[in-house]
Predict the structure.
Amino acid sequence: MTEGTTMIRVKVETVCARLLPVAAGVVFLISMIVIDASREAQAQSSVRPPAGATSNAVPRALSRSNAPSRANFPTNISEGKVPGGSLGNRSNSEMWRAVRQGISGTVSIPDKKAGQLVQSEGDNFRSWKNGPLANWGAWGMAGTIGLLLLFFLIRGRVRIDAGRCGRTVTRFGDFERMGHWLLAISFIILAITGLNVSYGKYVIMPVLGKPAFAAITELGKWLHNYVAFAFMAGLVMIFLAWVKDNLPSRYDFIWVAKGGGLFAKGVHPPAKKFNFGQKIIFWLVILGGASLALSGIALLFPFQTAMFAKTFVILNAIGFNLPTELSPLQEMQIATLWHSGVALILIGVIFAHIYIGTLGMEGAFDAMGSGEVDENWAKEHHSVWFEETAKATSSESSESPKPTPAE
Amino acid sequence: MARMKFLCDAERCIECNACVTACKNEHEVPWGINRRRVVTINDGKPGERSISVACMHCSDAPCIAVCPVDCIYNTEEGVVLHSKDLCIGCGYCFYACPFGAPQFPAVGNFGSRGKMDKCTFCAGGPDVDNSAEEYRKYGRNRLAEGKLPLCAEMCATKALLAGDGDVVSDIYRERVVSRGFGSGAWGWGRAYPGAPS
């Protein structure tokens, strides 16, 4: 130690001649080190706080190097005094409670959202996503399939009672069918890729293994993001094509009173272009689809929308009590949950729609397949519409042989 | 086996951000990502407190629970790691994390966030320990080198402690006894159920 210090001093003296100010600094630093090393030997100095001072600093006598064991603590601990006379009177439990409940502090990094220390809404997001949403979604889908199966077993296929007559009538034109299939195909892609994100981990991953599953899920995510726009386009197309035919009419009451003719053979309540059941499907698809599109846009453009806060303001006006101050993160959490929930409901609805449009009813698929339906099917299921169409076609054909314009 | 934990002593943190800098430098953390950050409560007011926060390596980690491709996992030492090869960048972990630990290199539209990045407790990722590949994706694997996280190693006031939860507890308990009443360990009640908050 002495030898080393002497050597440094010699060095310092040679440098001193040329660089006096720098050398002075170096000497100062060295002297600080020397003082620090010899501090152990020094007695209590004036920098010590007065006897009555309270501080959170650990008193020297109790510092880890000197007295790590409990035995060295003052004996007056039993008298209720804090060892070393230091009181933790500066710790504010109210402040830490507020931190736990999500208050934000300041950060010096660019992302100011990082100022929040604990966001418990994340726990809510997790428990909703993995709890009710996943469970109800799975049971809902299984239940829908079960009910459809039960319906099929009891009722069987809804046949054309009079049999096919061979003559057809145009039910859906090219624009209508294009809109429908654009919507249908994009919905199926979106549903499969969406369900994969929600349930694939439990169903597909154990079969394919993690790397393959991650690869298809990533592909699915990209498909989901871009096919969404086809879905939105299809939604607009069918809305324009069919909204006028889906407004309520008096036949809807008869349809409901007769249970839609679904539960008894040979019962066919009159209907215009769409019966009440179809109208329900239409409005569920339009409203659910629009909600999916909006929440989907919120997810595609993260942290740029505040749709739920605005929606909650409107909902609060009609008696709800929902939070209107939502952080961007909460917006994303709610958008994710809402998007999944509405999608799961709509998937269930579409299960029923696919069933009745294919397996469940004879002649129904033709309407969307070729667009031409058998006249007997039309008479049975859409009697009012068929009469109107037949009248229109006959009157048109008597005047001039104009083809029916595709709607 | 040790159960690795972080603990930040709010009575000691002086908001010097050395932990943040050490972390960014050690792991070559991409621009815009802060695996560790220092948050100051009541900045400039009486009772100001600062907390250094990163991934808390939760026992029952919400990020693991919500990951759709199961790319996040708990190691035997209780460290929460993830695979950037599997991550699809959906952002669910970020939504679920109470501490804001998972981050993405971009706030891109159309889900173009890139792969999630977060504190690894200086324990790398699922790739071969201390390989170039591991370093590129996750940063240095100090645990595999027999070292503790650099943020805590660098902490000048020893506010930030990292290591075996029992040792960290012992050190902190000693501080608590010395100080007396009122020094709750921040974040422990949430991250490690059963521990005092």
Observations:
- The longest strand of chain A covers residues 168-170.
- Chain A has 14 helices and three strands.
- Chain A touches chain B through 71 residues (CB under 8 Å).
- Strands of chain A lie at 106-107, 168-170, 372-374.
